[in-house]
Amino acid sequence: MKNATQLIVLSHTRFGESSIVLHTLSQAYGRRSFLVRVGKKTRMALFLPLNLLEATVVENPKATLWTAHGFRSCHPLSGIRNNLYKNTMTLFLSEVLFRVIKDGAREEGLFDWCQRQILTLDALESDFSNFHLLFLLDLCSALGFSPSFEDMLPFAGKHAAALRGLMDASFSEALLLPLSGDVRNGICEDILRYLEFHTESAVNVRSLAVLREIYDESLC
């Protein structure tokens, strides 16, 4: 059975010399991985983190790993791909999604929420240094936790006051909230600890170190 399906790329891993396993999020299948054949002419840029794609999925009830082919981009995301900082942010956010959302999980509305977030980041022309923090807070709500500041307090460190300011502000106000690199990193780690607790998973995000390095004081 073949289905045209919209997918959000979370990551991919090599599988032999001519294939990858593509880890995705979709409305139809939730969090699911597909076997994809690749060759010298394959545009690997299609599989960058958080890309929005359409593909043909071949369902096979006898196989645990279905296949997908005929990939095309639904949105070019030029606002992200032409910006080093946004690209780094998508690497971090996609890894969080990959680690927090269980394989096979189908959270109602999660695909639509994630797609809106990606398109919002793509459209922002400036003042997006706090975006990943708002993404993480909103992800908690998208997963059904809807944290208040009191819920977050046991996980908040010395930057609790700044976290409260972020949570109390509107989206546009929160984007403009002046935070140092140290405070921003601290809040990020606080929210990740909250996610670890509620998803019962180790959110050991390797790309966080890259995000810390590139989002230095120059972006405050």
Descriptive account of the structure:
This protein has 220 residues and is an alpha+beta fold. The chain has 2 domains: 2-73, Nucleic acid-binding proteins (OB fold (Dihydrolipoamide Acetyltransferase, E2P), Beta Barrel); 78-219, no CATH class. 41% of the residues lie in helices and 20% in strands. It has helices at 78-81, 84-100, 110-123, 131-142, 149-152, 160-168, 171-175, 181-199, 208-214; strands spanning 2-14, 19-26, 30-37, 52-58, 66-73. A hairpin with a 4-residue loop joins β1 and β2. The longest helix has 19 residues, at 181-199. The radius of gyration is 18 Å and the shape is globular. It starts with a strand and ends in a 6-residue tail after the last helix.
Number of helices: 9
Query: Could you list the spans in which at least 5 consecutive residues all have pLDDT below 50?
Result: none
Total strand count, please? 5
What string gives the helices and strands in order? EEEEEHHHHHHHHH
Oligomer: single chain
The assigned structural class equals alpha+beta
The separation of the N and C termini measures: 50 Å
Which bin fits the share of residues in helices?
Answer: 40-55%
